[in-house]
Amino acid sequence: MDEKFDCIVIGGGVAGLSAAMTLARNNMKFLLIERGEFSGSKNVSGGVLWGDGLASLVPDYQDEEDGGWERFINHRRLTFMDGQSAFSIDFKSDHFEEKPYKGVIVLRAKFDNWLAGKVQEAIDASDYAEDSFIATSILVEEVLMENGKAVGIRAGEEKFHADCVILAEGVNNLLTRQVGLQDQYVPADYLATGVKEIIRFDRKVLEDRFQLDGLSGMSNEFLGFATDGIEGGGFLYTNRDSISLGLVLGMKSMREKMKPNDRKIYDILTHFKQHPAVKDMIRGGEVVEYSGHAVSTGDMRVMPKEVYADGVLIAGEAANLLMNSGKAIQGMDYALHSGVLAAEAVIDAKKKGDFSAASLKQYREALEDSFVMKDMRNFQKAVHFLHSEQLFGMVPNLVCDFGRQFFTIENKPTPKTGKMLSNAVKRHSSYTELLKLGIKGARAL
Amino acid sequence: MSMKKMSIAERLGTVSYVNQGKSEAKPHILVDTDICNHTCPHKATTYVCPANCYTIDEAGKVHFQFEDCIECGTCMYACDQNAVTWHYPDPESGRGVKWNFG
């Protein structure tokens, strides 16, 4: 393949495939390179693809008999836990059943592979059906530069040339570092590690246990006991016949609060599974896959210096576009949208015949105008607030203490609710501390 | 019946790897364990790695093996001592993970 491509997309995850879909639909000649045996084979997420972006990428996905997604979310729950109790805020509504869905649960090995199939269909329908490709099992080792401009890539001995390169390589963004947009060493401060198990059930058992109807699904996040004193939280998402159960744990917090020859990261997952409320949810299930992956937290201090350069665009988590604002962990929706915007900048660059940084700057502007950067900028305080020590211990303990008093009925005089609350506050904190935290939280959210 | 506690070996037993049958694979991560053993104040890789690739023996020495690595990237960030050189595995000659669910 000596011929030059309009664009080479590196990475066949959500960002890369969304970019590729957009390129194919606009009759661009491109090469997408995925290092795994198939798209998704190297990818892990929690994972919910929030928002309705997928409907614009694959309009009929909701009606497909066996689309790449698992379940749509119509039930959300946030659970505070101490060692014995679980106190949840629970929201279920019919409005979630309106299409397009506002969140679908996915398993990446299946979902990305399905999406890659849709991209191939778009390629087949394009002017470059014979000249655009999805290539797998190829590791890109280098972005080729000429006079400070990206002109292609090298994989082993082979070189491929293009007018520009979209880096959609995920959070472990080695090529983004190679082209100088991110430091060679990225510190642990703004990153976390996710560990997860896929636990399989008889489908009927799963549906009854979690009150699922058809393809409806639930997302449950956990704060407190789940992470055993480490910064982070737990999650549970229902798939078709399994659940994804896991933790996201701050790397810096782990480094500081754990020590050698003691508990390890996966012991915390075991600890989470021992909680009485979690035990009841996973009873009788079979662990069919254990997984883990580094994940950005949404702190913008970890982002690359810029998301474009001469002949280069960075999309998805390679640009650390991911945010945990406390409401949800959003990453795949950002990946999808940034992939589309990067591809649109490439399409316009082709029209202009100009792939310089000045031309590709359009991508940054579009990203800033979109919900991706607007939300990340708006909720930086929320991201910082979520690092508050109290959220992983004091707050869940206090909430559960109050819950235990409030929901326990005994044959003796019942104190007023206010008294119960002040009991709980005194045992775990003080009104001054709570007020300070409340103000910080109110500003953040 | 509640679920029994799983060991890390049992957990990793659920993971599929590339070139699983090959006896020799090219390591994709290089660790200078001299740094771990002589200068590192925390040895964090030995407790943050989800695949237990970093272990400490009875003498307190750090050992690394790449065969169980799930390419998560954690060690590349958790090590602030410049002991970890991290690459992706070569699809042909390396190892690395192949998720069934992901």
Model description:
The complex is a heterodimer of chains A (445) and B (102). Helices cover 35% and strands 26% of the residues of chain A. With 445 residues, chain A is of the alpha+beta class. In chain A, helix 1 (14-25) runs parallel beside helix 9 (332-352) and helix 13 (394-407) runs antiparallel to helix 14. Chain B has a domain at 25-86: 2-Layer Sandwich (Alpha-Beta Plaits). Chain B has a two-stranded antiparallel sheet. In chain B, strands 2-3 form a two-stranded antiparallel ribbon. In chain B, strand 2 and strand 3 form a beta hairpin. The radius of gyration of chain B is 15 Å and the shape is globular. The model of chain B has no long low-confidence stretch (mean pLDDT 95). Classes of the chains: A alpha+beta (445), B alpha+beta (102). At the A-B interface, helix 3, strand 11, helix 6, helix 7 and strand 15 of A face helix 1, helix 3 and helix 4 of B.
Shape of chain B: globular
Q: Gyration radius of chain A, to the nearest Å? A: 23 Å
Biggest interface pair, residues each?
A-B, 59 and 46 residues
What is the CATH topology assignment of the largest domain in chain A?
A: FAD/NAD(P)-binding domain
Q: What summary fits the major beta sheet of chain B?
A: 2 strands, antiparallel
**Average pLDDT score of chain A:** 96
CATH names the topology of the domain at 25-86 in chain B as Alpha-Beta Plaits
Please name the fourth-level CATH homologous superfamily of the largest domain in chain A: FAD/NAD(P)-binding domain
Which percent range fits the helix content of chain B? 10-25%
Structure class of chain A: alpha+beta
Low-confidence stretches of chain B: none
Series of H and E elements of chain B: HEHHEEHE
Helix run count of chain A: 15
- Beta-strand portion of chain A reads 25-35%
